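Problem statement: downstream parser choked on a complex file, so we are re-checking the raw output for the flavin-adenine dinucleotide run. The parser issue turned out to be on our end (a line-ending mismatch), but while we're here, posting the original submission so the record is complete.
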Amino acid sequence: MSALTRPKLSSVKQKPELPPEIYRQAVDQADLAISITDIKANILFANEAFARVTGYDAEEIIGKNESILAAEQQTPPRLYQSMWDDLAAQRPWSGKLLNRKKNGELYLAELTISPVVNSQGNTTHFLGMHRDVTELHRLERMVRNQKVLIESVVDSAPIAFALLDQTGRVILDNQEYKKLLSDLQVKEPAHTLLDSLLPLWHDALVKEPERCVFARREARIDRVGGRPRWLSVSASVIEIHSDDEENCFNIVQQRGLLLAISDVSSLREEQERSRAAVMQAVLADEERTSAIREGLSAAIFRLEEPMNVMASAVSVLYRRDPLSAEALDRALAASREHLELLRQVIPHHAQEIEVRTNLNEILRDVLEISTQRLLGAGIVVDWKPAITLPPIIGRPLQLCMLFKALVDNAIEAMNIKGWKQRELSLSSAVDDQCIVITISDSGPGIPSERRHKAFEPFVTDKNGTGHHIGTGLCRAQQVVADHGGIIDLEASKSGGCRVIVEFRLDGDPI
Ligand code: FAD
């Protein structure tokens, strides 16, 4: 190195040397039980903390083997085997061992052993560091036991629980909830239930979870190919402590929503069965009254036609034969009076009050009521309900009659001698703020040119060509219109008839 490039002595920084005594004092005074052994684990050095933890003074422990601390028969031999395997491979070893103090007391030691390797690469000593973790372990076990206890209590409860964080993620649930998950076959039952009971829950949970609190609200869940389930749901807000590392020094709390879900299906099923029976009786009565009403209306309608012809004939006859014309006029007037009397005895529609009505429930009732006829006609039913359906404000009996009339039409259309394909498909869905009900049959269908006439009063082909549309469709259209909805006919996939009924969820007419 030339004189030019050689650094000045004053500019070379000397690495500060730590006096060996400091090393010794640091190790001696450390709050960790430290020992240094030869390669056979014979103790050469032990610090003050080692004496505190084990009860052995340095003088009495030096020269003894570390195995003096072993609690006989307590630590599995394979643990020592793996310890010595690691040390032989010059790898540090960490683990927990059960030790015995000088006074015979057992304690759990969390121990780390590091091989001390010389410049030739040989292990010359071992450095052992351990601390008594008995109390920590006891607390850990207590927390673990309590967790297991709480989990088994929560799991054995006959109620499903789901705890949602503020983003709506389910962070805790129990066995009943898991059963619900596999039974309902939806992505997250808690979300399905909240969607049905509290449509704006997601937003509310983020901004103001208190708005999501409710008690014992019932949701009806309709499953394809299964019986419906009724679930009673309560929601309450609870505080959740964050266990993220970054929140170690600050207690961060967020609010979660705890859902408690109990199954009230057997009670509701019982009620549903008796309601369907009552509905069947009321419907039968209403059908009889309707038949009288429609029969009389049709008779009056048909009688009025020739009477109108006669009235024009009378006005012509007055010029030629006033006496006969007068007699005929009187007869006509008398007939009109009789017709008016007839009109007055037409039974009125019973007034029904509007209530929150679930159309899945109505459609199930209709299928229940029609079971005998469907079986008798050998018709296979495919019922695809929306899993949850918001209620509409409507008249249940009127709606039941509407859908019964549509199902009856479908049955009649397919129940023709020799007709092979006999399938009835019903579905409900929510589409853009509307509930859409579809009823399709695999019958002969209605030719497109006749479809627009099908809703006219007294139009029926039932006794003629075999088409299934009768006065029922006119009445059906009236019921749909009374509920602010629309009804339409089109050809089904199989060439049969598909009736589509739509109701707005906000109640406004479509
Ligand atoms: P041991 O006869 O000691 O042996 C158990 C198994 O280890 C056998 O399979 C044997 O083949 C193998 N083995 C033993 N010594 C060696 C060796 N030198 N090289 C390779 N394999 C070997 N044990 C505790 O119970 N508590 C402690 O706190 C503890 N601290 C230790 C600290 C250090 C620094 C070291 C090096 C070891 C420590 N040990 C401790 C391990 C201890 O030395 C014993 O191995 C252990 O206690 C089992 O004792 P034992 O008499 O039942 O069986």
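For whoever reads this later: The two ends are 97 Å apart (CA to CA).
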